[in-house]
Design a protein that fits this description.
Strand order of the largest sheet: 2-1-3-5-4
Number of helices: 12
Order of helices and strands: HHHHHHHHEEEHHEEEEHH
Structural class: alpha+beta
């Protein structure tokens, strides 16, 4: 982590972390005094866009240099996620009505009403889709690390396998079908809680004062052995708001591995990009407007040669 004060309460910028301080900052930006509202503000349009960009980048890849982000992670255009039908919805409904397919007609009418009610897909959140492809961000999304900074350390220190081979480049972007495996010995909540020397000393003193138990009252040996073979599971305090899995990840906790199934997408009323802000809100829209106005120049051959490893 570059900045030791990354969870400062004064700025209250949500990060990719399970920290209690980060949870408080997330509450501040959601319901507290730090909620950003652009409908009644004295800021100029330039200031509003810059504020939205700063909030989005603080959560989505704050460890990525801004120049590198604009050049290698910013999409050229937002994708079109509208369904591509060869025939219009009106013609399809008329055809089903003429053919007497009542059940299919009712299903199509119900689906069209739901799409009209939800509105357009929140494609603005897909601005950060390339960040979600990074192997360190993917490990954090799979709940194998408490923060994206810890996930980066896991990769750099050689505790992660990509498709069965040791991988130490945290900048790698995954392709659909890639499997990532993490060493269980470095996953924090799969380890026993660390005991201090004082606790061990007090425990030894208490054991010496207590008389040895009667043999007949002891627990069965089979049950004791079974308890020792169980894997410990100790979540940190206040971790429940962050325990979720995205739709593009297939996670296997018994093997500590996950498969990157496909690229994240969006559909009407729902976005697969986890973000602390409204996927179709003002912050996401203004952030995209900021980057669309300040796009880097075309990439030359020399710049393409320096491009991070990208598994298409």
């Amino acid at each position: 982590m570059r900045d030791a004060n990354v969870f400062a309460f004064r700025k209250a910028l949500p990060r990719m972390s399970w920290s209690v301080r980060n949870l408080f900052n997330l509450w501040q930006r959601s319901l507290g005094d730090k909620v950003v509202k652009f409908n009644n503000t004295n800021k100029t349009l330039f200031q509003q866009r810059w504020t939205a960009k700063a909030l989005m980048r603080a959560y989505h890849g704050d460890f990525i240099n801004e120049k590198i982000f604009k050049r290698w992670y910013l999409p050229a255009t937002l994708p079109d996620v509208r369904p591509r039908n060869r025939t219009s919805a009106r013609d399809a409904l008329a055809l089903d009505d003429y053919a007497g397919r009542n059940e299919q007609l009712e299903r199509a009418i119900r689906r069209k009403e739901e799409e009209d009610k939800k509105g357009l897909a929140p494609v603005g959140s897909l601005t950060m889709a390339e960040v979600e492809r990074r192997i360190d961000v993917f490990i954090f999304r799979c709940c194998f690390a408490h923060s994206v900074y810890e996930a980066r350390r896991m990769v750099i220190h050689g505790h992660v396998l990509l498709n069965g081979r040791k991988h130490t480049n945290a900048n790698t972007r995954l392709a659909p079908g890639d499997m990532v495996s993490v060493d269980p010995a470095v996953i924090p909540f799969l380890q026993d809680p660390k005991q201090t020397k004082g606790n061990l000393k007090n425990k030894a003193t208490d054991d010496s004062d207590v008389s040895p138990p009667v043999t007949g009252a002891s627990e069965p040996a089979g049950k004791k052995d079974t308890d020792e073979e169980l894997t410990p599971f100790n979540l940190p305090p206040y971790a429940s708001p962050f325990i979720f899995l995205p739709a593009y990840a297939e996670v296997s906790f018994p093997t500590c591995s996950a498969v990157y199934v496909r690229h994240p997408t969006a559909r009407p009323g729902y976005s697969e990009i986890p973000t602390p802000y409204d996927a179709d809100g003002e912050i996401v829209r203004l952030a995209w407007e900021w980057y669309s106005k300040r796009r880097p120049r075309n990439r030359s051959k020399s710049q393409l040669a320096r491009m991070p490893e990208n598994r298409h």
